[in-house]
Amino acid sequence: MTNESQKIPTWFWVIGIILLIWNLMGLASFFHHMTVTEETLQALPEKERALQLEILADYPLWAEIAYGLAVIAGSLAGILLLMKKKIAKQVFILSLIAVFVQMVHTLSYIPR
User: Fold this and answer.
1) pLDDT surpasses 60 at 5
2) For residue 12, which of 82, 79, 80 has the smallest C-alpha distance?
3) What is the pLDDT of residue 76?
4) 109 neighbors 58 (Cβ within 8 angstroms)
């Protein structure tokens, strides 16, 4: 009788899927950030293009690594959570730490 499986509550699945979608959107944003091309920039209005070029030029490598780690770990953690793996918690914590590291740059950035 101790081996009876407990039914997973609906809120677990709803929150897990929302977390996964959120992190997958972050992964898509990171992919776009890393693969932006000259053609993409040329399609922007001039003021926005100048701002984007300035932001991309001033984005340090350590912030890009933290950004990538945050979204990759967050997406992986979302998948692990839905698979009900205990390691999901540690991977989410790693993602959160990477977010904090990235936010150091984001919050301290002052455009020229």
Assistant:
1) yes
2) 82
3) 96
4) yes
